[in-house]
Amino acid sequence: MSMFLDTAKIKVKAGNGGDGMVAFRREKYVPNGGPWGGDGGRGGNVVFVVDEGLRTLMDFRYNRHFKAQSGEKGMTKGMYGRGAEDLIVHVPQGTTVRDAETGKILIDLIENEQKFVVARGGRGGRGNIRFATPKNPAPEISENGEPGQERELQLELKILADVGLVGFPSVGKSTLLSVITSAKPKIGAYHFTTIVPNLGMVRTQSGESFAVADLPGLIEGASQGVGLGTQFLRHIERTRVILHVIDMSASEGRDPYEDYLAINKELESYNLRLMERPQIIVANKMDMSESTENLKVFKEKLVANYDEFDELPQIFPISSLTKQGLSTLLDATAELLDKTPEFLLYDESEMEEEAYYGFDEDAPAFEISRDDDAAWVLSGDKLEKLFTMTNFDREEAVMKFARQLRGMGVDEALRARGAKDGDLVRIGKFEFEFVD
Description:
Shape: elongated
Structural class: alpha/beta
Order of helices and strands: EEEEEEEEEHEEHEHEHEHEEHHHEE
Distance between the termini: 66 Å
Radius of gyration: 32 Å
Largest sheet: 6 strands, mixed
Helix content: 10-25%
Strand content: 15-25%
């Protein structure tokens, strides 16, 4: 079984804020000491940190739930609760983080030690020392901590490589990678020997260097899921230059030019923008007797079928076995990389807008619906947050929550919808009677 994993779906939950405390100063010789309950601490964030030592998302195969610690509760003497430490989750370079619910991309993590908060912890609830007023100098009111953000994420790893090797199975991609880098890919005389992407660093004779990825062999229909193609085509997206490796000996009985067209068709079908990347055609296995004649026919077909306004791709005859033509190929690749800019991987429509952790001013404060048992159901982010942060063990806090609902217009809206005295009103699992 392959130990390479490049996609994962996980759930993250930031820590809740600590509850505020209701306490009073009770000391000898200090009459009417007043409120003394402190605020709760902040809940921990869930933070992704890029670790260049990781190569796959295998760590997320069995551990799919990540939960940060909640903040400490407020204490007496007006002391704050301790804030929770952030939960650090290490991810490999090239990880794209997507919100599984909306499908929007949150961040593309490509720099080593880059950090991103994927779920923000809740603030601590206020203690009763915060609610003291001249009118009510000894309030028995405190807040519960704010809930931490919870979300489901889709992680997708697209390996960081400057150059991608593409081509049919058994055209010599792994052998080429093994002779131009220190990588040790598995090489076998059968199709799909390479079942995971392999990465290696190339250093040319002139001293330039770049990363090369050998991607599992494509076949016709790969973009629709045939073979291994659809699983690994995503890794080509980060490359700036494509080396299209073709078996010019036609040892598999296929026509080299038809192979060239078929692979380009799969790249185009998967993502049209892959065709923007410059290609170098690598005519491999030139040590075979039939290769010279096949290369001549290949060039004739390429010229005959190419648009006169397009620039013909460079063709480099090589033999990975005898190392013929490799230095020329690598120098040309380095030169092409120097003048090829980074390609935009995602457009703005795919990216989530900058995270905002407050309330949406345009969103309604609450919504009213009707359950099957005829109960009125109140919902909405702002209302549910107020409910969660209300300490229903304290009568003053309950009365405060009732005043907040009235101020939001909930009472009037219920009357307008036909609510009558004694009707059941529900917020989550909490139920109470409507009093007209």
